[in-house]
Write a structure and sequence with these properties.
3-stranded antiparallel beta sheet; flat; alpha+beta; 225 residues; Arc Repressor Mutant, subunit A
Length: 225
C-alpha cells in the first residue's frame, strides 16, 4: 500500500503521493475561491495559481527542513561513535573529548593555506593546545589522529604528497563543534550547576524555580493520593 499525505484548509486540499511509484507529486486543489477572498472569474486564475504554488513550496520546505534534521542526526552519530569505513575501523570523534577539541581547533589554523599542512605542523599546534611537550607527540601518534580525521572525511590527503587539507565538511564541522562547545555547552553547563556557579545568574534562577515547582507538584500529588 502506497502512503499519501493530505492537508486541508477550509475548502482547499493538498495531496502528496508517489506518482506511479517513481516521483513524489504534490497537488493543491482550491475548491472555494472565497477562502482566499477571490471571486470565481477567470481573471483571478493567476492569483489563485500563485497561492497554490506557494502552498506546495511551503509543504516541501517544511519537509526538507525535517529531513535535514534526520540527516544531521545521522552525521552527528557517525562522528560520536566508532565505525567502519571502507573496511577500516575508525574511532569516534566525541564532542567533549579534549584531544578532539584540540584537533578541530588545530585544523582551523590551516584552512586558508593552499599547500595544506603536514604531520609535523599539526603535531606542533596540537601539543601546544593540549599543554604538552611536543616530543610527547610522536609521528606515529599523530598519524593515528590524521587517519581518523581522514576516514571521518574531515581532511583529505593532497595527491602525491604527505600533506593534508581541510575539507568543506571538515571546516563546517570544526567551526560548529568548537564554537558550540566553548560558548554553549561548557559555559552553559557551568551556569546551571550551583557547585560551579556560586554567583546567581538568570539561567540558574530559572532552574531553581523549575526545581521548586516540581517539588511542589510532587508534594501536592502525595497529598492527593
Amino acid at each position: 500500500m502506497i502512503p499519501s499525505l493530505h492537508l486541508d484548509y477550509k475548502g482547499t486540499r493538498i495531496k502528496q503521493y508517489h506518482k506511479e511509484g517513481q516521483a513524489l507529486r504534490t497537488e493543491t486543489t482550491i475548491n472555494n475561491t472565497r477562502d482566499f477572498y477571490f471571486g470565481k472569474s477567470l481573471h483571478n486564475l493567476p492569483a489563485l495559481r500563485k497561492i497554490g504554488f506557494q502552498a506546495n513550496r511551503r509543504v516541501l520546505q517544511v519537509q526538507t527542513m525535517t529531513q535535514d534534521s534526520i540527516l544531521a542526526e545521522e552525521t552527528l552519530q557517525q562522528l560520536q561513535r566508532p565505525r567502519t569505513v571502507q573496511g577500516q575501523r575508525v574511532s569516534a570523534l566525541r564532542l567533549a573529548d579534549p584531544i578532539v577539541q584540540a584537533l578541530w581547533n588545530a585544523l582551523l589554523m590551516y584552512d586558508l593555506l593552499p599547500a595544506g599542512f603536514s604531520n609535523r605542523q599539526l603535531r606542533t599546534h596540537l601539543a601546544q593546545l593540549l599543554g604538552q611537550p611536543e616530543e610527547t607527540f610522536t609521528q606515529g601518534r599523530m598519524s593515528y589522529h590524521l587517519r581518523r580525521l581522514r576516514l571521518h572525511r574531515l581532511i583529505q590527503r593532497i595527491p602525491k604528497t604527505h600533506r593534508y587539507r581541510l575539507t568543506h565538511f571538515g571546516l563546517r564541522t570544526s567551526v560548529f563543534c568548537t564554537r558550540s562547545y566553548a560558548r554553549i555547552f561548557r559555559h552553559g553547563l557551568g551556569m546551571v550547576l550551583p557547585a560551579t556557579s556560586p554567583v546567581a545568574n538568570a539561567l540558574l534562577r530559572c532552574f531553581h524555580k523549575l526545581a521548586q515547582h516540581i517539588n511542589s507538584w510532587v508534594d501536592h500529588t502525595k497529598i492527593a493520593a
